Amino acid sequence: MTNTDSASLNPMRARLRRVVTILHKKWQAAPRLRNTLRVLYRGGLVLMLMVLVLDLLFPFTPRVSYAQIITASDGSVVHAFLSSDQKWRMKTELQEISPLLRTTIVRKEDRWFYWHPGVNPFAIVRAALFNVWTHRIGSGASTISMQVARLLQPRSRTLWSKLLEAFHAIQLEIHYSKDEILQLYLNLVPYGGNIEGVKAASLLYFDRLPLQLSLAQVVTLAVIPNRPTSLRLGEQNPEILRQRNVWLQRFDAASVFAHDRIVDAMQEPTVLKRVDVPRWAPHYALRLKDRFPSEDIIHSTLNARAQHDCAVLCYNYIQRTKMLGIYNCSAMVINNQTQDVEAYIGSADFSDRLHAGQCDGIQALRSPGSALKPLLYAMAIDKGLLTPKTVLSDVPVDYNGYAPENYDQNFHGAVTVEQALAQSLNVPAVKVLHDIGVQPFAAKLSALGFKSIAPDAANVGLSLALGGCGVRLEEMAHLYSCFAAGGRLRALHWLQSDRDTMSKQMISPGASFMVTDILTQLTRPDLPVNYLSATHVPKVAWKTGTSYGRRDAWSIGYNKRFTIAVWVGNFSGEGIADLSGASSATPLLFSLFNALDYNATGDWYSAPKDVDFRLVCAESGLVPGEYCDKTVTDYFIPTVSPAQRCSHVQLIPVSQDGRMSYCTSCLPKAGFKRILVRNYAPELLAYYKREHIAVELPPPHNPLCTRVEHDHAPHISSPSAGKSYLVSRTDKNPLMLACTVAPDVREVYWFLNDKLIQEALPTAQVFIKPQRGRNKISCSDDKGRNTDIFVQVDWE
After folding, report:
1. Can you list the positions of beta strands (E) in 570-679?
2. Which of 148, 186, 417, 774 could bond 198 through an S-S bridge, CB–CB 3.0 to 4.6 Å?
3. What is the spatial distance between Cα 380 and Cα 192, in angstroms, rounded to a whole number?
4. Interior angle at CA 79, CA 272 and CA 338, nearest 5
5. Tens digits of per-residue pLDDT, 677-714?
6. Which residues, at least 6 apart from 590, have a Cβ–Cβ distance to it below 8 Å?
7. Kind and range of the H or E element at 781?
8. pLDDT tens digit string along 505-515?
């Protein structure tokens, strides 16, 4: 500091010392003032102590019953329920009180709100003088805190009530911050009828949240509470407009807001009309309400636009299907990046009581039909049983009395895995389940979250492959989201607060990719008729399902962004002749994808690290053998996928004239040659013979050969060994006999209780009438190979 600066400060210090000295002398010369201040100070302390004691003895705890609301991820309200006292009183959270709303309410109702302790003594004196002068009660001097106390405990307007309000206001100030008291006021302020609180009024009259209100709308809501009866929204709109402008002018005069902003607000038209309470997600809201009954605001993961669009599409779709007798549908949308549930449509029309519209189809147990087949084939790939090009037999089979049929009641002979899955063939799926095992498949479903499987796991059979179980739509959506995530099962998020990071690799990335690649194909029968040429087909992997009796139609699809599951049918369980996954559910699935992700043409699934390419035999899907002349490219998982070589063509020895074949036991030393012949599985050969499909067979075996090949003995496919049959007394031939045999068999011999019944072709169906009780049925082929079974027969 320079000498000049020091010199300039000295006079100021001198003046300050003189002022302090003068004030001290006056204080010493005014004992009455000192005594008065001491009395006031001590009285204040006593009053504060009394208030604290009374607060302990008579606590005042605000208890507010709010209308529970469900919000979407953007904060918008998608559903609301009345409060327990039947009020539309929606909780306004602290972060929803905008500076505009705060300034307007405080300036109008209690400009000294942030300065007084709940009671404004100056306002009380002013109100008392006004009331005495005018000989009427025209001013109550109520602060915002006192108004909150009155709204919490309404009383008749008496002096005693006023004193209680003042005391409760001070109690509120002791226990709550100013912002929390203002929040209570904004939640309780009346707007006529059963509407209370700024949030409810904002939603029901302006169709927006408080944070989105304009200055004109905020002032409109600010003038109503003083006269909620005479200024009823939607009825006294001209008077409301006049009062709004009066207060806008007052704010302008006090420079509360910028003049240009006030001018714009006064010119803003006031359109006040009661709108419906948002109810876009009734089933989802009821589900969350049951789960969180005490939460005032439930912040869900729903996407407001997706929920709205899906609800409209489902409603309109069912309006068109009603003429077919189809009245219900459900849909669920999962965001594959976040695992958030973004849309939840329990039924197309919640108000349709005639067709049980209030039933939540997402939680209802239904039969999945063929929709579980992708998981079945993925498990088989992971177990090393097959790859996409592996050839399976689609022919009639019988597993202990269970004889599955395809949806079209036809059989297709030899088919690849990708054909079987893309065409949703039943017989190959049942065969794959038979190879995997029913219990391992049921255990996998339980691990994936299918809750109804475990209790019935001991009773399920091979029909599980075709929907012989109960599943929920949310379980199916979760399963397919697992495929969308490369076989990794992740926890679904229902609330914004959900942080469950559960993640389990349930299917290998390779198997998941192969199944996805198959389900993306468009050359398949479950593509809706003319859909490819008439409508935009989204880039998705999808699978359909139709339950037995045509009671349930499913279509579930996924891409990188979304998994969408759709169910169509009737909650009554009534079957509909025209109901199917392809024609009834897939059109709605495609519409939902087009609405939510129309331009999804970019990123798609690529082969993971555990998948490679290889050439396989086109006839078997196995590693090409020595004589395989046709190969195709196939995906496989190294060290996992089957590595055995193909043997669909064999080199066998035959006589020089080609009329008979030899085995190692009867092969002559000379006089023979070797030829290539096709090696058909017995069941496939039997199918070809039954369908009169020409096949090239090896010549008959050497009749002089004494070797009996028991490994190729006939297999009796009907009846089933060990089963009991109830037959009619009057039916002459109630029981059918059928078998499959080796390719070189030309004739079989049927025996009943060791008595020859009939000689027949291997493909012929023989009918008999067994005796009552235990029966032995035998089948021998023309090579001397024999099979016996026993069945129990009762007569009715």
Report:
1. 612-617, 631-636, 649-655, 672-678
2. 186
3. 66
4. 125
5. 888 777 787 788 778 888 887 888 777 776 655 567 88
6. 528, 531, 535, 536, 537, 538, 540
7. strand 773-781
8. 999 999 999 99
